Amino acid sequence: MRDKILSFLTSEQNKKTTIEELREVLHVSTSQELTALVKTVNELLDDAVIIENKKREFTLIKNTNYVTGHLDLKIRGFGFVIPDDPSLNDVFVPKEGINGAMNKDRVLVQVSPFGYGARQEGMITRVLERKYTHIIGTVIFQNGMGKLLSDDKTITQDIIIRRENLNGAKKYDKVRAKIINYSFKGKIECVVTDVLGNMSDKGVDVLSKILKYNIDPIFPPEVIAEAEAFTDVTESDVESRKDLRDIPYITIDGDDAKDFDDAVYVEQLHNGNYKLGVSIADVSHYVTKDSLLDKEAFHRGTSIYLPDRVIPMLPEALSNNLCSLVEGQDRLTITCEMEVTSSGKVKTYDIYPSVIHSHKRMTYNKINQIFHGDEKLAEEYVDFVGMFYQMRNLAKILKKHREQFGSINFETEESYFVLDENGKAVDVFPRERGISEHIIEEFMLKANQTVAEHMHWLDLPFIYRIHEKPTEEKLSRLINMASALGYRIKGKSEVSHLELQKLLDQVHGTEAEKGINLLMLRSMQKAIYSDINLGHYGLSFKFYTHFTSPIRRYPDLIVHRLLRTFLFEQNKSLDTIDYYRHKMTSIAARSSETERNAVFLEREVIDMKKAEYISGYINKRFDGIISSVTSFGLYVTLPNTVEGLVHISQLDDDFYHYSDPLMMLIGERTKTMYRVGDHVTIQVMNANIIDGEIDFKIIKRGDSNENHRAQ
Asked: Ranges for the S1 motif domain (predicted)?
């Protein structure tokens, strides 16, 4: 019935119809058929596939000035609706047009024919699907009524909690509250479901952020039981696998890592080429299709790494034990073995199920120290030092080969926190990336690329990591800003990968490096997962996937499952192919969504911990560099990665105009310019810990050795 209605409505553009006409066209004669027709029409109305006008006529939404999409609500009250149809532009919704919708809700918006310039503008007429069913916040009391101060500042309505719905929550407790009425006399009404603890208790701040994204830090008991039912590797497990236990595979990870996805082995061959073995934990052996573990992993999508904890995608029995390539233990793996020439090309390769026995658990720190001449460590690991240097040589070759084809090397800065016994940030500094980190990065890139290309040519269902090219508008902004800083980029609408990498090489080590890196990253599209191979622009790879981290990323687990199904088991039946073709779109979409949520959560917690740290330095002065300039002010980054906003109102020596093409603030009277890369001395004015917002004030331009410096 649904398909017949839609087919009729699409038969003529802008077609309008009524129940009576549909009865005639679809030959509806019995009362049962009429009931089914009315029910189907109501379902189409609820799903916002069709819409009804005042004359009780129905038409397809796509043939009207209505658009469905998700609301991106801003703190200042206005928002943008991102349409479900990616070919449509975002719709601006003013504050008075939000009509009770909340951030991330799926909504129906009526687009006005009178937009501002090229921008579409509209009013939300209906909320189709609520994103959030709970609110995280702090309980207070007002006029005898419980109130919730939401952590989400986009919620501007009062949130009330009746005393009988507090469930033991006290003043200043941080709670999770279920929404029971989205519009009660203009307010939101809630009932407390979880008391997280007093807002000052250890770990409550981070837990509140976790729950804000509907992420459960605890696995269901039945999922844990399924994970714990597996036994250690037996000989029957390895019968059909290539035995690599005598090959000196090693893991290289951070000092505090507990889950080891990948082990590597390098050997220089007699012909001058290199044999590179990348063996990845075979999680698909344990997490099988449609199992409880599989459904939980799909729901979570990814492990999440926060300063005070890790929320794994899989229970500890797998993530830190059977699926972790622990030193001295037999582990099931999938190996991508490659012969790489001295020019960086993969001459031959093989992908197969295997079993390894990790010979040594190495850390980035130790290998970097060996490369820096630590003789004591070199003696301790004498059996592996030769391979370390072969790894370094091969990584250099692979990197050079990538760069020749235009692969862009973004230098992103990570923060490392020192927390006290109460979980409070007492120090923060940049996480160093040395030679060994780059070695593993190059090896993983090559394995991911090799697996993706192999599967592409088989023309079977697969999941790719894609990265589309940047828009002309964003590239133009990058070119203008670089030009204002004295750097030239050849090209306008079409800029080559090599030109972008050349710019990064030019700014490396300069004051403008962070700003240029940041703007270039913002100029790029977001990398996502897709069942359609569109290539990876940033890496300049025609074929790319994620194969190397199945413990902590669901797409990698799916890649392993597809390798097992299509390559190792040779199951290429039509039913199997159709099953994965149907599933892959939703798997890619869900994986991209959970990745975005994890990034947002990690960013919020990091910003919160930075604000917590710098709150101990109010009124202190530090030297920093301008990392970004906007119409409302500028951002200054300190050497320890802490970033704060200097609001334009704080620049009180002149009236400043924002130059959008050049991304500069220019004084009207003095012509003083503030631009990316400028040295400034700031004073810490305020730190909003919950929101992770830091306010600075510029004291003077240029360096000063007399100022306090962040350690």
From this structure: 619-699
Please name the helix (run of DSSP H) or strand (run of DSSP E) that holds residue 225, with its range, or none: helix 221-228
This prediction's pTM: 0.84
For residues 189 and 263, state if they share a domain.
no
Beta strands in 358-497 (DSSP E): 360-363, 415-419, 425-430, 464-466
Number of Cβ within 10 Å of residue 652's Cβ equals: 10
Burial class (CB in 10 A: 0-12, 13-18, 19+), 493: exposed
Q: How far apart are CA 151 and CA 208, in angstroms?
A: 8
> Six-digit token pair at 280?
């990845």
Torsional class of 357: left (φ above 0), alpha (ψ -120 to 50), beta (otherwise) = beta
Which residue type is seen at 224? Answer: I
With 0-12 / 13-18 / 19 or more C-beta atoms within 10 angstroms meaning exposed / middle / buried, residue 41 is: buried
- The full DSSP string for 110-179 is EEPS--BTTBEEEEEEEEEE-S-SEEEEEEEEETTEEEEEES-TT--S-EEE-GGGSTT--TTEEEEEEE
CA 380 to chain centre: 39
pLDDT tens figures, 583-632: 999 999 999 999 999 999 999 999 999 999 999 999 999 999 998 898 89
428 touches 692 (CB < 8 A): no
On whether residue 163 sits in a domain, the answer given is: yes
